[in-house]
Amino acid sequence: MLAQILGIICCLDALTLVNSAPAVQQPLIERPAHGSQTEELVKAGHGRKLHGRFLQITDFHPDPFYEPYSSTESDKACHRGEGPAGAFGAETTDCDAPIALVNATFKWIDKHVKDSIDFIVWTGDSARHDNDEEIPRTSDQVSKLNELMVNKFAESFGTDDEDPTNAFTVPIIPTFGNNDILPHNIFSDGPNQWTKHYLHIWRKFIPEEQRHGFERGGWFFVEAIPNKLAVFSLNTLYFFDSNTAVDGCAENTEPGYAQMEWLRIQLQFIRQRGMKAIITGH
């Protein structure tokens, strides 16, 4: 389960999504010459040392009602009864993750990953499933679980800088999951309750110039490595068959169509600037 949560740590310099790979792959940033201005800027803290790796975190599904040694039966959901639910989760069952697993995961990240990545892709589903009729999900619960995750990122990657655009040591790019809203799967045209709410929760992750577009439909991008690499966060709920509030992206009246038009134009700009891009979604 820990491996599923951590996702994958990938090499950036092996991936090109916008342009076909050149005969000789160029690095995302040139190694600064000894005594160069670039080297001095890095030493002075005005630049970041690149590692060529990023961290993907996905589908935590933290469950504050999880009880160790409870029943894993579907009608108990690791919330009550007696059974084999472990202290750090109940793998191979439909139970969600205990908060203890979230804490242990970030502790592991602190020790093994924190200082060797360039950015984080956080691809959604940071609230528990609606899998217990005795404890139905609420909008407040979904919000608080996402706020919990933001706080965990802040504990591991936060800075003391009062500037909200420099609140983390590395860029963090979140994405909507189908369980990050209520009812799950249903995401209407924006601006809506959830785009406005997550604009507040994720305000330190979304560049100021991207916030209007995010409020419109939950999509944005971040230059994870300025002038070198952009990471796009798409709201893939607009492409989800189970989202009955919209109808795909074929018609120009649909938010999915608007999102794809936005993406097309932004990728053209990225290509003109000679940058690379990674496209993420849930």
Describe the fold and architecture.
The structure is a single chain. Helix content is about 30%, strand content about 10%. The longest helix has 19 residues, at about 140-155. It is built from seven helices and nine strands. With about 280 residues, the chain is an alpha/beta fold. Strand 5, helix 4 (about 140-155) and strand 6 form a beta-alpha-beta unit. The protein is globular, with a radius of gyration of 20 Å. The strands form three sheets. The protein has a four-stranded mixed sheet. Strands 7-8-9 form a three-stranded mixed sheet. Helix 3 (about 100-110) runs parallel beside helix 4.
Supply the number of helical segments.
7
Strand portion: 5-15%
Order of helices and strands: HEHEEEHEHEHHEEHE
- Sheet having the most strands: 4 strands, mixed
Task: Give the strand line-up of the largest sheet.
Answer: 1-2-5-6
Q: Uncertain regions: pLDDT < 50 for 5+ in a row?
A: 1-46
Computed CA radius of gyration, to the nearest angstrom: 20 Å
Amino- and carboxy-terminal Cα gap: 18 Å
Mean pLDDT: 87
Find the structural class using helix and strand composition: alpha/beta
What is the number of strand segments?
A: 9
Q: Indicate the overall shape.
A: globular
**Helical content (DSSP H or I, runs of 4+):** 25-40%
